[in-house]
Design a protein that fits this description.
2 copies of one chain form a homodimer. By secondary structure, chain A is of the alpha+beta class. Helix content of chain A is about 35%, strand content about 25%. The first copy, chain A, is built from 10 helices and 13 strands. Chain A has helices spanning about 5-20, 65-85, 100-120, 170-175, 195-205, 210-215, 230-245, 260-265, 265-275, 290-300; strands spanning about 30, 35-40, 45-55, 85-95, 120-130, 135-145, 160-165, 225, 245-250, 280-285, 305-310, 315-320, 325-330. In chain A, the strands form 3 sheets. In chain A, strands 8-10-7-11-9-12-13 form a 7-stranded mixed beta sheet, with helices on both faces. A 4-stranded mixed beta sheet of chain A has the order 3-6-4-5. The first copy, chain A, has a two-stranded antiparallel ribbon with strand order 1-2. In chain A, strand 1 and strand 2 (about 35-40) form a beta hairpin. The two termini of chain A are about 40 Å apart. Strand 3 of chain A pairs antiparallel with strand 2 of chain B.
């Protein structure tokens, strides 16, 4: 039997872990334990706030490990701070659990804390309630006044860039939920892609890396930025809408992991790279004459970045195929109330 | 059939309502529509953050109207800001819905907005996801540096005060869920208490009034403060624990609504007043020589306050009964993972 603990013990456990991981932060005047936290934004800085909810069976499969759930619940939120070019400072955790299970909570906090400690983000409040498993994390970051990266700054002629590789997380999801014959969709030929391949793809799904350092390095370089949570096309479309522009993407330029190449044929790969969510890479724009600055910024934080297209006056998204043809981009990406797909959708 | 709307339409509806109710706030540099909101804390002020989750069947009965759910989801959070003496500024809303129902969402937003507009709190972000009905609201307030009311400042000899009346919300809960014979527990005699009585009690349960103005008026007067969400004894115990003191309460002094008197016998009434949650009144302490200042502050915001006891060196809570006997206070209050009661429990 799982060890059951009362609510105030749950809170005490969380509070103890929260106090240990980040060391004291002198901008936390009052943390967990009162009606609210008291926090100090440094002079000359603005506050950046984002929040995301993850529900079992919607945002992660029910067999996901508690460690991975803890990691991902924080990661998807930190990714939003990365996309703003903000430095993480504080977070709150609302944890709804079907039952009080000390082992589950311990493993969940292990994952949460592993990532929180890397970014020295302090847990300053939250709520534990009973109900179907659901996690809401709200993150707070700070940014020098005027320095935040936004979606609405893309200019005609800017180049479109993306960090890391695309499609891996969506590929990992197909490998987490094999089809009845035990094979994912579009698996390449008959050759096994090997356990290392699937491990990598699933790791990209369950433990995404928020690109915090890259977001900070892009201050005063990127003209617009978003994180790839719903899929490249869906997220770049948000930049287009907010900036009143369109874009042309070169599909041959999309950064591709060797694991994705090993596991899927080209058609499936493209679909995963253009439409798959959950990569949590940064997609950003910058003027062509800042390309060297983009590359230097990425190198300074050991991030990979790839130029994948250009901002145009014509609204909407277009793709340049391998043969040079230009076609309208298909509508892809996850939308919660349209279909049953997993996915993330910040308001 | 309920009208179904896609997720991005849901967000658009929320965004439109959010833009309309509060008027522009020049401390919101970027609201809904990017990866995160950008907010400015005024110079010389600190940030105050609190968050609470409400789940169907746990925090509110499944038959609760969407208007009341919207109101209460914000009210319980604003009450935490009130207990800190903070001025509400911004909030985020994470809404998990089993299905996309435009009429439900409209009524929910009506309730949320009705209260939000009163306090000019801006909705600056959030998330809409699919799953069992659950609402998480995170509120942000500001307070002049050093002026926040906390739980840890109660001093031996301070008087204990409470706003409004106690026990009404818990009484309303018994009236929302009548026993099989159609009568609530402990109903007084055989005389009907009248429809106005039940309406009042249920209103106190479903539409609590956060005591924001009173919290602000108590700056530099109250030595400690908490909101009554889990029940008077449970919440005053938090002040005792954080301040390393105890308290003696005069049960005859507990403020009682005429509706509570009309509906319940004395024993039930006392139990509801000492242990019932969800009143969202403020319980606070102040030195005896500030009693006139407390009364003047309450009068200035047209709030009712009642002196109900005194802080003592002896830890724990004691009750002075009507006959003058002093007894240890019973352990009452809601704890999520101990029992099946509805209740709220901020971390």
């Amino acid at each position: 039997m799982a060890e059951s603990v009362a609510e105030f013990d749950l809170i005490a456990r969380i509070r103890t872990r929260a106090a240990a991981w980040a060391g004291p932060r002198d901008d936390v005047l009052l943390g967990i334990g009162d009606d609210a936290a008291i926090l100090r934004v440094p002079d000359g800085h603005d506050l950046v706030v984002s929040t995301d909810t993850l529900n079992v069976g919607v945002h992660f499969p029910s067999h996901t490990t508690p460690f991975d759930i803890g990691w991902k619940a924080l990661a998807v939120n930190l990714s939003d701070l990365a996309a703003m070019g903000a430095t993480p400072a504080w977070c709150t955790l609302n944890l709804t659990l079907p039952e009080s299970d000390a082992a589950w909570l311990g493993a969940f906090l292990d994952g949460f804390v592993e990532l929180a400690a890397r970014h020295r983000i302090a847990l300053v409040g939250g709520d534990t309630t009973r109900g179907p498993l659901s996690i809401t994390v709200t993150v707070h970051g700070v940014v020098p006044r005027g320095a935040a990266l936004r979606r609405d700054g893309a200019q005609i002629g800017d180049e479109v860039w993306v960090s890391g590789t695309l499609g891996d997380a969506a590929a990992g999801l197909t490998r987490s939920s094999p089809s009845p014959d035990g094979r994912g969709v579009g698996v390449r030929g008959d050759s096994p892609s090997g356990p290392g391949v699937d491990d990598h793809l699933r790791s990209r799904l369950h433990r995404p890396t928020p690109r915090i350092a890259l977001g900070l390095a892009l201050h005063a370089i990127a003209s617009a930025c978003i994180d790839v949570s719903d899929g490249l096309l869906a997220d770049l479309a948000h930049i287009g809408e907010e900036s009143s522009v369109g874009a042309l993407l070169d599909v041959e330029a999309l950064p591709t992991s060797r694991e994705l190449v090993a596991a899927f044929d080209e058609i499936t790969r493209r679909r995963l790279q253009l439409g798959g969510g959950d990569d949590y890479e940064l997609c950003f724009t910058a003027p062509p004459d800042r390309a060297e600055a983009v590359l230097a910024a990425a190198k300074s934080v050991r991030a990979q970045v790839t130029r994948i297209g250009r901002i145009e006056a014509q609204l909407g998204l277009r793709l340049r195929e391998a043969d040079g043809r230009i076609v309208d981009a298909p509508v892809l990406g996850y939308r919660h109330f349209d279909a049953g797909d997993a996915g993330d959708a910040p308001a």
